[in-house]
Amino acid sequence: xxxxxxxxxxxxxxxxxxxxxxxxxxxxxxxxxxxxxxxxxxxxxxxxxxxxxxxxxxxxxxxxxxxxxxxxxxxxxxxxxxxxxxxxxxxxxxxxxxxxxxxxxxxxxxxxxxxxxxxxxxxxxxxxxxxxxxxxxxxxxxxxxxxxxxxxxxxxx
Length: 157
Description:
41% of the residues lie in helices and 17% in strands. With 157 residues, the chain is α/β, with parallel strands linked by helices. The protein has 6 helices and 5 strands.
C-alpha cells in the first residue's frame, strides 16, 4: 500500500474525540501520515469552519490523502468542506454508508458526529474510507467531475 496522508480536524464538540483518535489512526498502518489541522486546544466558542476549510484544502491539494472532520452533528463541517473543488465530504455513521460514499462518489473526507459516535466506531469508519477503492466505471467518474463544476478552487479560497 502506498504512503498516504490523513488530515484531521475538529471543533470544540469534536475536540476530545479527535485527540482520542489521533494515536489510533497514526498506528493503523506504517504508510499513514496523520496531520492534525486543529483545533489544537479546546475553545468552547470556536467555529467548525476553520478546521473544515483547513482539512478540505489539504485534501483537495493532495491526491493521496483523506480527511476526517468531527463536530457535534457533522453537518456543518460537511457543508463547509464541500464548497471547495476536489473536496468530496460525506457525513456517515455506518460502514455501509462509508463504502457507498467512497465507491460510488469517490469521497475523500469523512465527517463524523462527535455527539453521536464513539471513538471505536469512528476508527472503523475511518479505516473503511481509507481501504475502500472507488469504482472504475466511467459513469461514476463523470458524476464526480460534475461535483466540482460550481465549487471554489482550493487555491482561491
